[in-house]
Amino acid sequence: MTTPTRPSLDDPSLTIPLEHAGIFEPIPLARTERQQEFYALKDGEMLLNMGPQHPSTHGVLRVVLKISDEQVVDLDPVLGYLHRGVEKIAENSDFHHIISQLDPLEYVSSLFCEWSPVMSFEKLLDVQVPRRAEYIRVLTGELNRIASHMLFLGWYALDLGGITPILWSFAERDEIVEMLAAITGAKLLFNYFRIGGVNGDLNHEFMSRLGDWMSRAGAQLDAGMGLLNANEIFVRRARGLGVLDRETALRMCTTGPNLRASGVPFDIRRAHPYSVYPELDFEIPTRSEGDSLARYLLRMDEVRQSLRIIDQCLHQMPDGPVMARLPRLLRPRPGRAYSAVEGPRGQYSCYAMSDGTDQPFRLRIHDPSFLHLQLVGLLMPGNLIADTMAIMASLDPVMGGVDK
Amino acid sequence: MDRAFRTLVERTFGDLLTGPVRQRHDETEMRIRPGDVPQVMRTLHDDPALRFEYLGDLAGVDTGDDFQVVYHLYSVVTPDWLRVVADGIPRDQPRIPSITFLWKGAEWMEREAYDMFGLVFEGNRDLRRIYMPDDFVSFPLRKDFHLPDDASRSPGGGVRPMEDAATPADAAATTVRRSATAP
Question: With an 8 Å Cβ cutoff, is B69 touching chain A?
Answer without folding.
Answer: no
